[in-house]
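Notes to self after the call with IL:
- keep both proteins in one doc
- input above output, always
- annotate only the second one for now

Protein 1:
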Amino acid sequence: MALTTNPISLLNTNGRPHPVQNTAAVVTFVLGLVSAATSISPGLYLTSSWVGLVALLIGGWSQMISATTGQRIVTVLGLGAAGSGFYLGMAHGGLFGGWLG
């Protein structure tokens, strides 16, 4: 019989549920992927920079409250993608698209 596991259980390696920490880690990862994906197109620099900034802030908070190694791994991967997307978005035009100077 095949072993079935819930993917979110890979984040709860200590056997206890951590819904807030898991949500923060997954949100950081997803927003990081969105930021990195939109940074490929220079025309989407506003999306890339704002989503990257939000992901960096949530990821920093997630890193401080994480309880397991799985959560930290997902958070760090998301932070890396978010940082790349944020900085490329800033290089293409920034958070405000030249409105402030």
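Protein 2 (the one to annotate):
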Amino acid sequence: MALSRWSWAAFNALQLVFTLLWTAGWITLALLVLLVTRRRHLPLRMAARCWAPGLLRGSGARLVVRGLDRVDWSRPHVLVANHQSMIDICALFRAVPVPLQFLLKQELSRVPFVGAYARAMGMIFVERSSAREATRRMRSAAELVKAGATLCVFPEGTRSRDGEVLPFKSGAFQVALDAGADVVPVAIEGSGKVLSLSGMFRVRPGTITLTFGTPLHSAQADRQALAQQARDSVIALKREAA
């Protein structure tokens, strides 16, 4: 029997409480592990193996992952994905078989627990109000990749409300060029239906599909052309998933 509107509202309120407590608890534990071990890859793997699966199960999401075998995960890459929902981060953490870093918008640095965790993991926040500071942080992101990290970027710059792939901003692709790393296009489908981009915490069970494409070589590429090539690949992968 279908749930009523008020039943869904009550259920989503419980899910919100679970999400906040689960996230705060795992971040606290991850920071303690980092404090003791001084090894960032351990808390990142905790996010992939514990935190993300818990939130996906709590939302009723079924994760389908395709194309992982197209990528040599022994090498660092820059992943570029379309962005439909905040649950995209959980799906990517869970799907990628190596510790994953993110290039995040500056606003997330002020979110309790999340900002502290991201800073401790060495993730980069993009300051969009200052071109000079944004350039400096992009260079820091390139150094992170050069050091061996796999970095995920949402080059649309925001979440898509209708699921269509928005134009890709080319600035993030300079990270791949400066690091000499290949770009891996990733298509995300279905996450916007699981966790809606609305003013309320609206969660519905559903399937989230992640499709990884063939890496794009960044050597001697133009960042505008690379951005367009990556966007075209993501659109094609979304069609493949459908």
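Annotation: The mean pLDDT is 92. The longest strand covers residues 182-189.
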